[in-house]
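Anyone else keep sequences and structure tokens together like this?

Example one:
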Amino acid sequence: MKKQKGFSLIELLIVVAIILIIAAIAIPNLMRSKMAANESSAVGSLRTINTAEVTYSTNYPTIGFTPNLSDLGGASASGCASAAASNGACLIDTTLSSGTKSGYSFAIGGTSGTPSVTYTSSAQPVVPGQSGQRYFCSDQSGVIQYNLTAACSGNGSGTPL
């Protein structure tokens, strides 16, 4: 009898089935890891915004805190090299100042008085359940809070981290 070389169809199907089972176990864990990384990035970005707001209010005391995220950023890296201004303070990177970073959208709100003595910053997942689970917020106190179901607005509306 002639000896066959290679694998039989059954052996190949068993290997494919094992690979599919391993993938079915690994993919949900990968998604959870990505959401956790996005949430960590969002918290770090809110800390950056808090620091930038304090620096902004120190540099521009007649304005106080800014209610515009774009005011904390700059037009581009080369625009920051020349001179910072109140409408482009070059305190945060252009990706964050555009309002979206790592699966989260960022926004700032403030009071209309001059100088503005309060602000709120928020981060919410672009696609809840896929890019992140929790909503984050902060205010002039610097305490970062989260909410599981809806956007929080600072001032004690969420659970502190």
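And example two:
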Amino acid sequence: MSTDYIPAIERQGYTLREASFLYLVAAHSGYFMRRHFARLLDRVDGAMCTHFLTKAGNLGHVRRLAFSQNRHVYHLQSKTIYRLCGAENSQNRRMKGETGIKHRLMVLDYVLDDLRQQFLVTVEKKVEFFTRDLGIPMDVLPCLPFGEDDTSSRLFIDQAPISIRQHGTHRWLVRFAFVDEGAKTIKPFRRFLSEYEALLRKLPAFEVVYTADTDVNFPAATEEFLRRFPPAGASPLFPRGVEHFLGFARARLHWERSGGRVELTELATLQDGQKIYRTAGHESLYARLVNGAVTEQELRRDSRATQEFRFETYLLEESYPFQTPRYRGRH
């Protein structure tokens, strides 16, 4: 947690712990519940929470929103607080729909679960870290074009939590959290991976954490990640791992020797591989496999992963005040 902005928030009439909490909310979510503040205090919800919420409401910094189950969500809407946090134009100040609010509450739960993480809070911090500290080109950062001429773009528009920590083998390990606020399928996760894949492949070490309040999408999300990033690792020659290339080579050889009569699964493998393995190096390697100059075993032995990466699923065992059957209680 950055402490640079907290003294300025304290001067608005808050205690150190209250100011620290407001900084976390401004930086990561914009929305919170009573239990979030109690959790930061490591206390049972009680008088200290009531005193803080009354004070923040009287100062006009926080607005209470009523939801189902007779529960409330609080919105940090004060431009003053965001300005003191260096985020005067933060989207967290804006009113959101139920899905957007739930997403932000889940992000705050994720952050509070491990305050030791060093988060890249703003777009500026993210761009600075990836381009200056890691030397990654701007054109591989996830962006969403807008405007008719598409000459401008917005970077990291999804505001996915990104944290960094020192790493033994590499200088930095970068951790990306995808937050599923209740999707019925993993289509949003596929889109997330597509938008971030170019950046992920440039990193020496990274983790992707699929965060949700139910485990229903965990198996499919795991399968999708491993399809793009096989456990054997990735390299410039084998961006999806050596096994993926070998599967393509076998399907191509069968296609060529059968006159184009292959199974549908092989056809899908061919179509997928043709988009990836198009360089002279791939053609040369395929020819050497066909004529026996190199074997599959030798390729497996000689291929070296150039990245360290890991995929995790993370279950938020909390309830949210929305009409949803997702929550099944703590496990």
